[in-house]
Amino acid sequence: MTPDPPEAGGGPVLAVDIGGTKLAVGLVEYGGRITAYDRMETPNEPDLDAEVLWRTLEALLDKLLADSGTPTIVGVGVGCGGPMTWPAAEVSPLNIPAWRGFPLRDRLRGRHPGLPVRVHNDAVCVAVAEHWRGAGRGRENVLGMVVSTGVGGGLILGGRLIDGARGNAGHIGHVIVDPEGPPCGCGGRGCLEAIARGPALAAWAREQGWRPGRHDTTAKDLADDAARGHPIATTALRRAGRALGIAIASATHLCDLEVIAIGGGLSQAGPLLFDPLEESLRVHARMDYARKLRVVPAALGQPAGLIGAAALVFAADRYWSAD
To answer: Could you report the per-residue pLDDT of 181-190, keeping only the tens digit for each?
Structure first.
């Protein structure tokens, strides 16, 4: 049974956001304000040991707490790249090879005995943040999405996070948008992630003649060139937008959504991505109720993962269904 969440006016939550490129930590107040913050690049050497990575994270947490005067925290919330077992949070992030089945939740419980320690997928935490304090605030049925190095999401229905049988509900990145499309890292073909994630989109554009031979180019470079009118870059973003529109139409037909908030690096392309998304969505979302959906940029930006991780503790009645 989930304990009652901490009340307003108490101490902060120690929030953690773990991804393949960064480790971010912060202290988050009940209202969602981050009062202290630190980050570092995720160590990712090929021979990195799991325990070395854990000690690196511990040192970052210790520094944050010491620099903040060792406040009395009310819990620990974590967003981490997947896959993971849930809610046990034995994590195996695809972009962090050092951790395979690493018992992250148990380790954090050992550091903070007696406090709630809650770990969820990093994209789920972004979705929770946007519903709690961001673009989906005040709405009951929201899908939060992250379109970046991968495509993930989290699903809020009836004002509550939907976890699914194994904590993976809302994983829109593996909705199939083109059965004859490119292979996906999951082993399938034509998944949204295989088309719209940043690295795949840049690779596709290079194959079409955009910056050929430049394998160091990124989706940000692609978006920058599209903004300058480069025809292949513009076509690539339209391709991603169309795929997103198809997936979102399917999701809202299934779940009767009110708002979809999209964050992540690729969302920074703005109308170059959102305009073809809207065109595709209106073509494929044919039911009357689906046409009322609003698709908006996420409002909270980079800190969203930490804010959502804190909400797992502060608003457990809505966002945490496990022990």
So the answer is: 999 988 999 9
Q: For 58, which DSSP code?
A: H
Record the pTM.
0.92
pLDDT tens, position by position, 89-126: 999 998 899 999 999 999 999 999 999 999 999 999 99
> Distance from CA of residue 222 to its chain's centroid?
21
Radius of gyration of the chain (CA): 19
Number of C-beta neighbours around residue 217 at 10 A: 18
Q: Is 192 exposed, middle or buried (0-12, 13-18, 19+ CB in 10 A)?
A: buried
Amino acid at 150: G
DSSP helix/strand/coil, 301: coil
Does 134 score more than 90 pLDDT? Answer: yes
CA 236, CA 222: separation in Å to the nearest integer?
8
**CA angle at residue 58 from 52 to 62, to 5 degrees?**
145
Q: How far apart are CA 297 and CA 263, in angstroms?
A: 6
Tell me the two tokens of residue 209.
Answer: 């003649």
Give tens-digit pLDDT for 287-299.
999 999 999 999 9
Partners of 151 in the β-ladder? 147
List strand residue ranges (DSSP E) for the chain, in order: 13-18, 22-28, 34-41, 75-80, 90-91, 102-103, 117-121, 142-147, 151-157, 160-162, 259-263, 294-297
* CA dihedral (92, 96, 99, 100) positive or negative: positive
Cα-based distances in Å from 130 to 75, 155, 214, 262: 20, 11, 36, 9
Gap between the Cα atoms of 28 and 13, Å rounded = 5
> Which has the closest alpha carbon to 264: 96, 123, 78, 128?
123
The two tokens of residue 149 are: 């190095």
Asked whether the predicted pLDDT for residue 2 surpasses 60, the reply is no
